[in-house]
Amino acid sequence: MRAIWSGAVSFGLVSVPIKVYSATSNHDVRFHQVHGEDGGRIRYKRTCEVCGEEVSYADIVKGFETPEGELITLDENDLASLPVSTGHEIDVIEFVPNDQIDPLLFDKSYYLEPETKAAKPYALLREALNETDRTAVVKVALRQRETLALLRVRDKAIVLQTMIWPDEVREPEFDILDTDVELRPQELQMASSLVESMGADFDPSEFHDEYRDAMVDLIEEKKTHGDARPAPAAEKTDESADSMSDLLSALQASVDAARSSSGSASSSSGGSSSRSSSSRSSSSRSSSSRSASSGGSSAAKSGSAKSGSAKTGSAKTGSGATRSRSTTQSRSKKATEEKETAATGTEGGGSKTTTTRRRSKKSA
Known about the structure:
The chain is of the alpha+beta class. It has seven helices and nine strands. A seven-stranded mixed beta barrel has the order 1-2-6-9-8-7-5. It has a two-stranded antiparallel ribbon with strand order 3-4. Strand 8 (145-154) and strand 9 (157-163) form a beta hairpin. Helix 5 (239-307) packs antiparallel against helix 6 (311-325), helix 5 (239-307) packs parallel to helix 7 (331-363) and helix 6 runs antiparallel to helix 7. It is extended, with a radius of gyration of 59 Å.
């Protein structure tokens, strides 16, 4: 057995350190409520009848409804302020005769075990109760609630018998009990004889729970004939795991969104760079064409000035300028025009030399 409480019994100047053990146990066959279709356990949820939401145990407080329909709630601080005995002491109030205790007041029974050093005072209290045929009336605080109790002897042990309070005993309010009933002496004598014939010493070991025995037999029979099935394992709901799963899902979605955004930006940037590069390349080619055209035009003008009034030079120069401008469309044509422009300049130079020689001969 495991002790549920420890303290001391105090009477007069004597203190007996003890441990308290439950003296009884319940042997009822306990059943679970299950779903007949699949064997799943039936669970009950704490729901608020006003809002319909499930309420956690931490959010539940004690409420008292007055006869006027008003609700008064008490929280842990309110309960802590109540004058409840918290000491671990069983105080003996008085010793009363055994036959004055109404068994209707009995509640639960507990064995008292003395500490090693308290064996003598424990035995002294036990024998004193036996010798005087009395029971000790005490007060004790079990499970943070003070209760009335008795100390009585059972064999070699002292039993702590908790009791209900006297105002918790209901009175039998049956009108028929007040009816006068006439009993004849012969009837009373026969009833007494029947009682005497059925008289015996009480031995509780002769009695047992026949209903419980029949229930155990029924269960064993079903188990033997293959009516048993594996109990289904309920799915465990771990809120922390759900929260972590939700967090991971959110993080994954964020990463995917970031990658998608980055890919779109890179594609757009790449397209712009290609267009920009193409534009710069086109602009560069255009500049080269303009430079070549300008160079060809200058050479043509130079050739035309040297040729003076030579019609052939002028014609070729104009033709060179026209062809130079067409180099913006083709590089091969540009090279051809440059060659033609150079030839025109040389030819013009030759004409100039011939004209100069003719003027010199006239002067002479």
